[in-house]
Amino acid sequence: MVAAVLTGGWAVLVTVAGQGVGWAVDQAVLAAGLDRAVLTWPVVALGTVLLVGAPTLALALLPRAPAVRATGRAWLAATLALGALTLLRTVPPVHQEAYLAALAATAALLTAVLDRLLHRRRAAVPHAEARRPPQPVTLLGVAAGLALLLPWAWLGALGGLLETLLAALAAAALGALAGVLLDAAFWTHFTVGTPARPARLVLVGGLVAGVTLTLVAAGAGQSGAQLPALFLLPPAGFVLAALHAAAHRAGRPAGGAPVRWLVGLGVLGPLAFADPEEITVLLVAARDVPFWVAVATGAGLAVAVLLAIGYAVLLARPGAGTPSRRVAGATAAVLLLAVAVVHLGPGRPGLYGERLLVVLREQADLTGIPAGAPGRAGRDVRAAEVYRRLVATADRTQGNLRRELTRLRLHPTPYYLVNAIETDGGPGVRAWLSGRPEVARVLVSQRLRPLPAAAPAARGHLPPPGGPAWNVSLIGADRVWPELGVTGSGIVVGSSDSGVDGGHPALADGFRGGDDSWYDPWSHTRTPNDQSGHGTHTTGSAVGRGGIGVAPGARWVGCVNLDRNIGNPARYLDCLQFMLAPFPLGGDPFTDGRPARAPDVLTNSWGCPPIEGCDPGALRPATAALATAGILVVAAAGNTGPYCGSIADPPAPYPDVLTVGAVNRERQLTTFSGRGPATGGVDKPDLVAPGADVLSAYPGGGYATLPGTSMATPHVAGVVALMWSANPALVGDLARTRRILRDTAGPAGVVSHPNHPSANRCGGEADLVGAGLVDAYAAVRAARAG
User: Fold this and answer.
1) Are residues 595 and 744 in the same domain?
2) 3-class secondary-structure state, position 20
3) Do the Cβ atoms of 335 and 146 come closer than 8 Å?
4) Quick one: 491 and 603 in the same domain?
5) Quick one: pLDDT at residue 755?
6) How far apart are CA 519 and CA 522, in angstroms?
């Protein structure tokens, strides 16, 4: 018995630790911008099977007591099943339907195998499950499962139709697996003598069942989605023990039916109502998906504990009677109605599946476009020709596919900056599209599920700097204004980010205005706004007034490509298209675009990693087209340091993008700043700029300090605005502009990282700090001289 207790504790410790470490590794890799560590979960699976399997095997073979051997067999079988289920996490989270299908099939196969191996003498055990109608304890198991599902129906949201159906199948298969492990043969070993001693069944059987369910829960979902089940299922072991105590008293063993229903409904919540891609450090902001998953998990844990206590008191105490089938059925019916009412009422009804981005093989030919006159006149001519060719190519090549998708009611949305179409569809549609001759590849376009309540809007609480901020002075921008008389007037900066607080005192007067200066493809708002603060901060560093912006005389236009700090390929394209050819609110980008109203330089403090659906070349045609049009794209290197080659997420690695890393007050490269070389050996970043504790505007009229290459990027965009304001003939001349920036950059140092010695080299200084620290004063003087 002591050995069983120690083995059970060890199994829980190893399992919970392994699952936590595996998820933490996934998140660390994601935050560092590294390639997904495919071997993480196979290593966790092997370690768990070896560390837990060995003692449970001994427990299944050596003790004399049948109950202890039964305990060992159940734990050993559950451990082996966990190992197989954990291996499925090699499927990337972005392919959730494929994972759920594999989970359902694997759990069903394990159920069949274990049923045959564990229950060869099954005929010796009364098989009450074949009786109809269901026993009261089975109905009470259904009621308990629905009670565990209730918080998820309230606080979560469903994915697509296929994803939801596969989640239900996977939950049912996991319930069946648990039913095999904890069926009537299992519970008979904990039924001592007559029904007069039910407390022993509840306590001992509940503990053993709780450990078994911990092992099952650890395999129930992708990385992150299994963590709630680790809290919800173990207390359910005592609920099941109480139900089987009541069934034993009535002389009618319940078998695995209560287990199947309770476990199946218990894991359905996190499997169906939470997207594992959103249980991530990318959404750690207050009251986002991780917060609500934690709330639903906490509520479910409280329900499970209350059910365990209540069922034990009502069903397993001496002299307790078994509820009638009518009472048990009514209880289950009431809870089923409650789940439906809560989900359709205060919950978030509907289906919120991912969409697909279909990239066509033929992209527009932009060669041979003449440079034209210097300055904005020539830039406008080039931009108009680029826009014309892009739209013509898309119209010519997309027609048949768009008509077919419309006929199938898949709601296609065409794009021209990359010749692509966003559409509804799951794995089947994706396979069909991938096989079409005109299609190059099909990407998943991540779609966020709604929150039960809106996250609180970000608010700045710091006062204005009272003079030029340190970061503005470090690059000499504050000298440009009085000494050279240049503030960026006449230049327009485009910001694609989380939005911009258009009413902020540092930004309100700089908004260009008109019906084509703001676009929100997420929420379709009509005026500039920002819920997270990120975009307000970056725009403030580029053009903000009051000492926070590099080019306070420049104007700005804005587009929302991030929602709750997540984007997808289609939303990034929406904003980049808007920057090439702005269009009025409600207009058609294909017919109503105005290339002459395109901003001059774009600041982009975002990247599109694989978890959002991008592959390395997803946005390559877009940045190439913008460069051909004479629009300079400035992009963040990413907060993926200090690892070499960590500038990987589009658009930062692209050669026609001006990629910016971050330094601190001492001109030293920050630890987090992404490093090159980029894909194909391209030297990146191009430049560095201040990005440590930068003070800038924040929604609500206040200010905040933030770190990141996101903060460094708008400094360079602001310097370009100053250069082009000082010499309008440079507008659209990207080659000369880049050369001046490179030739006038100042020195920047690299702090030695003893824990990452290779990060001090990364192939050369150009892959750490690029040409050096951007120098606004020297660059503007050189631009004016040119």
Assistant:
1) yes
2) helix
3) yes
4) yes
5) 61
6) 9
* 363 and 324 in a common domain: no
Q: Return d(Cα 694, Cα 480) in angstroms, integer.
A: 20
Question: Which residues, at least 6 apart from 755, have a Cβ–Cβ distance to it below 8 Å?
Answer: none
Place of tokens 């949201």: 157
Same-domain status, 340 and 389: no
pLDDT at 213: 97
Nearest-CA neighbor of 217 among 112, 81, 312?
81
- Phi and psi angles of residue 439, each rounded to the nearest 5 degrees, phi first: -100, 130
State the residue range of the domain holding 9: 2-346
Centre a 10 Å sphere on the Cβ of residue 361 and count the other Cβ atoms it contains: 12
Distance between CA 416 and CA 257 in Å, rounded? Answer: 55
Q: Are 679 and 616 spatial neighbours (Cβ–Cβ below 8 Å)?
A: yes
**pTM of the entire structure?**
0.90
Q: Are 360 and 280 found together in one domain?
A: no
Q: Which of 164, 146, 153 is nearest to 347 (CA)?
A: 153
Q: CA angle, 544 as apex, 540 and 546 as ends, to 5°?
A: 125
Residue 462 domain flag: no
Residue of 517, 710, 715, 775 marked catalytic: 710
Residue 456 lies in a domain: no
* Single residue among 327, 346, 365 that ends a domain in this structure: 346
Query: Which distant-in-sequence residues (6+ apart) come within 8 Å of 182 by Cβ?
Result: 74, 209, 212, 213, 240, 256, 259
Cα–Cα distance list, 543 to 93, 470, 500, 526, 655 (Å): 38, 16, 12, 22, 25
Residues 4 and 56: their CA atoms lie apart, in Å, by: 8
Count of the separate structural domains present in the chain: 3
In terms of C-beta distances under 8 Å and separation of at least 24 residues, what long-range contacts does 117-125 make, across chains too? Answer: 117/77, 118/73, 118/77, 118/180, 118/181, 118/185, 119/180, 119/183, 119/185, 121/185, 122/185, 125/183, 125/184, 125/185, 125/188, 125/253
Helix axes 136-155, 257-273, angle to 10 degrees: 10
- DSSP conformation letters of 234-292: HHHHHHHHHHHHHHHHTT---TTHHHHHHHHHHHHHHHHHS-GGGSSGGG-STTSHHHH
Please indicate, yes or no, if residue 180 is contained in any of the structural domains: yes
Residue 452 lies in a domain: no
**Biggest distance spanned by C-alpha atoms of the chain:** 100
**Which domain-ending residue is among 429, 445, 461?**
445
pLDDT at 124: 46
Kindly state the helix (H) or strand (E) to which residue 769 belongs, with its residue range.
Answer: none
**What element of type H or E holds 407?**
helix 376-407
Is residue 269 a contact partner of residue 228, using CB atoms and an 8 Å limit?
Answer: yes
Domain harbouring 731, CATH code: 3.40.50.200
With beta carbons less than 8 A apart as the criterion, state whether 443 and 684 touch: no
In the residue annotation, 534 being an active-site residue is answered as yes
Two tokens at 600? 């001059």
- 524 three-class SS: coil
Q: What is the pLDDT of residue 186?
A: 86
Q: Report the distance separating Cα 345 and Cα 327, nearest Å.
A: 26
Same domain, 575 and 677: yes
Catalytic hit among 26, 183, 380, 497? 497
Q: Which residues of the chain have a pLDDT value below 70?
A: 118-133, 192-198, 316-321, 753-761
Rg (C-alpha) for the chain, rounded Å, is: 30
What is the distance between the alpha carbons of residues 698 and 672, in angstroms, rounded to a whole number?
A: 22
Supply the pLDDT for residue 697. Answer: 98
Q: Are residues 696 and 557 in the same domain?
A: yes
Are 292 and 378 found together in one domain? no
